[in-house]
């Protein structure tokens, strides 16, 4: 049977992991975690590391599998880097939850993310990522980001790999940090999504069909070809046929799909709407918590930030929680909780990526969002 996918979004915001005692305990536990322990390079080298939660254990993902995620699982991703003309090692930690992951795995991923954060002395930027709503920062790590159906066994719930079912995938250029489109996202979609602006892959198991929309980019076509080549290499006996929209022989693609559908114009595909950014302040300076709108649109600026409080910046595709260096422990602890509640009360997508930024840490990503969007 399928995994129990009734994990609760409100239980993935890390808000309850804040006491000093818990932090000291997690740092000690983190130092004993083999997945990022001695000889792994974590905390001492630049690079990218990905782990999958398997029966409550943190298991390294093989590097040749980076960029490939399963909807039945939960992952932790660490990106460590240095800035130009600096030797200081900076970190971003993401925990990614698939649509079909179990509550067990989601909870383990959240807790282990905080444990890794404490192991790295609380300096990393933390990101919560939900399938289908990944942050631009995460997508920028991969030339191709894909989500496949399946997962590993969990300690509480029985999980068996389902029989193969044909699937239609979209290969689409993805905006990443800085607004550039240097990455693609591969997702499963319905045939109603077919349009002239993207590339689609129909995977029937041993036969794969790549269909290139008339207005799809050369970059998307190349990345789709690389993707199906990877599937061929994995399966050994799979073969691919490629068609351009309008080709006479594209009938083979439609027949395999189960019938031809109307191809939408590229300009009818809904793009991300223009959104007015908003900056909120979270403070309990007056004895109780107050969550107030400080500014919106062009009035939002870094000059409004106050080291004594916590601020939440909403730029639509992501929400940032900025922790002032003098914010008290309760403000610090509840910042992520208020960000999640904000999404809920405003009727916004509850799976929107949330990132926690420390004033004393690296916050280039936050500054870019503050000034650009």
Low-confidence stretches: 15-19, 154-162, 177-181
Helix content: 10-25%
Main beta-sheet strand count, sense and barrel state: 10 strands, mixed
Radius of gyration: 22 Å
**Portion in beta strands:** 25-35%
In CATH, the topology of the largest domain is named: Severin
**CA(first)-CA(last) distance:** 44 Å
Shape: globular
Q: What is the element string, with H for helices and E for strands?
A: HEEEEEHEHEEEEEHEHEEEEHEH
Q: What is the total domain count? A: 3
- CATH level 1 name of the largest domain: Alpha Beta
Number of strands: 17
Give the strand order of the largest sheet, numbering strands 1, 2, ... along the chain. Answer: 2-1-4-5-6-17-16-15-13-14
Average pLDDT, all residues: 82
CATH architecture of the largest domain: 3-Layer(aba) Sandwich
Put simply, the count of helices is: 7
Structural class: alpha/beta
Give a brief outline of the structure.
Keywords: Repeat. 23% of the residues lie in helices and 27% in strands.
């Amino acid at each position: 049977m399928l995994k129990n996918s009734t994990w609760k979004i409100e239980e993935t915001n890390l808000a309850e992991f804040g006491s000093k005692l818990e932090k000291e305990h997690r740092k000690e536990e983190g130092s004993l975690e083999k997945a990022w322990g001695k000889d792994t390079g974590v905390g001492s080298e630049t690079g990218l590391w990905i782990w999958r939660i398997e029966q409550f254990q943190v298991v390294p993902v093989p590097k040749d599998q980076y960029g490939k995620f399963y909807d039945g699982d939960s992952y932790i991703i660490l990106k460590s880097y240095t800035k130009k003309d600096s030797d200081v090692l900076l970190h971003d930690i993401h925990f990614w939850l698939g649509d079909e992951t179990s509550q067990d795995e989601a909870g383990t991923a959240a807790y282990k993310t905080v444990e890794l954060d404490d192991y790295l002395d609380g300096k990393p930027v933390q990101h919560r990522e939900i399938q289908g709503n990944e942050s631009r920062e995460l997508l920028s790590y991969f030339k191709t980001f894909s989500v496949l159906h399946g997962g590993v066994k969990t300690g509480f719930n029985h999980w068996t790999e389902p029989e193969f079912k044909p699937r239609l995938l979209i290969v689409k250029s993805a905006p990443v940090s800085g607004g550039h489109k240097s990455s693609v996202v591969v997702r499963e979609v319905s045939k109603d999504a077919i349009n002239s602006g993207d590339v689609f892959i129909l995977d029937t198991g041993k036969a794969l069909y790549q269909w290139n929309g008339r207005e799809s980019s050369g970059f998307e076509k190349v990345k789709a070809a690389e993707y199906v080549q990877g599937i061929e290499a994995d399966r050994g006996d799979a073969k691919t046929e490629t068609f351009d929209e309008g080709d006479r022989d594209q009938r083979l693609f439609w027949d395999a799909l189960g019938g031809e559908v109307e191809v939408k114009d590229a300009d009818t595909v809904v793009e991300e709407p223009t959104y007015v950014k908003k900056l909120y302040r979270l403070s309990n300076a007056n004895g109780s918590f107050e969550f107030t709108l400080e500014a919106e649109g062009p009035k939002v600026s870094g000059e409004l930030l106050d080291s004594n409080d916590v601020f939440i910046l909403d730029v639509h595709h992501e929400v940032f929680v900025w922790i002032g260096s003098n914010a008290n422990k309760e403000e610090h602890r509840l910042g992520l909780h208020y960000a999640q509640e904000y999404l809920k009360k405003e009727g916004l997508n509850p799976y929107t990526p949330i990132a926690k930024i420390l004033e004393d840490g690296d916050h280039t990503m936050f500054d870019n969002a503050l000034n650009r969007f």
